[in-house]
Structure formats: C-alpha cells, structure tokens
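Support request, please re-run this one:
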Amino acid sequence: MQIKITIAAVFLCWGVNCAVAQSLVDKFDDRILIKVADNRTEAKNDIFLFLSKTNNYVNIAVPVGMFAAGLMDGDQQTRRDAMYVASSSAVSFLLTNLIKVVVKRPRPFIRNVKVVPLYRAGGYSFPSGHTSSSFTTATALSSVYPKWYVIAPSYLWASSVSYSRIYLGVHHPSDVLTGAALGAGSALSLKFIKKE
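Re-run finished. Output below.
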C-alpha cells in the first residue's frame, strides 16, 4: 500500500513540476513574441515573409543541385553527399511531423490573443518545421563542405529563417529552439551516409 502511495506521489509531483515548467516556458515564449511583434516594420515584414516562403525551395534546391553537379561531373562522392543532405532532410521532416502530431501544441496566436500573426499558419506549432528543415540543410551542407564560406552563409540562412517564424508570430521561441536541435541532430546522425 505504501509503495502505491509513494508511486502516486511521485507521479503527482512530476505532473505538477511539468505543469510549472510548461507555464514558465509559455511565459518566456509569450514575452518574446509580443516584444518582437512590437518592433515590426513594413520592410522587415517583407524580408521575413520572403525567408519563410522560400525556405522549402532552398532545402530542395541544395541536394538537387548537388546531385545534378555530381551527374554532370561524373563525381560519385558529390552524388553521395547529395543523398546525405536529402536523407537528412527526409528524416528531419518525418520526425518533426511525428512530434507535431503527438504534442499537438497550438500556434501562439490561437493560445494568446495578444500575439497577432502576419499570416495564419495551419497545423500544429511544436516543433518548427521551417527551422528543423533549414538547420538540417545547413548542418548537412556544412558537414559536406567544412569551409567557413559554406558554414557561415548556411547557418546565417537557417538562423534567419528560424527568427522569421517568431517574427511572423506563427511559432513560439521554444518551437524554434527545438526545431534547430532536431534539424542539426538529424543531419549529424546520418553523417555515415557521406563517407567514401
């Protein structure tokens, strides 16, 4: 009997601690979202909308371009590297969407009326798919070409796309942080594909 009470107490405390932690995360997220929204301008709106809208095209164009270059040059390693980038993106996409369906976190503008989005994205919020995909591409590309002139623009792009999701009011900052970790982790976990 005492063991059952102890187990119940542990789960109750764990549930309370999780609720408190979630409340703190929500407050942190809301504070940042509202502060960012207060500093929007027309020029920045256009830039961040452009970044969000073109993200998927970039993530597809990178491995396709690499594969095409490998075909034209007859370079098997470049084709393998392209498959590594594409596979990383596929794994990231699947994991991101699986987590979205399991967690079912609402978009910030649904949960908090003070958050006004620049457009109303559909689906669930956690984690950010734009962020995970951009960080997957940046990490995989940087792994294939570990030169500063590849790494710096890749991560600048990924970071800018990620920030755009907060700026546009369609993702919580914690969605973006998790998406970045998930995207980078997906690429790093598949590095074995690019080996010669």
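The CA atoms of residues 104 and 124 lie 6 Å apart. The chain is about 80% helix and 0% strand.
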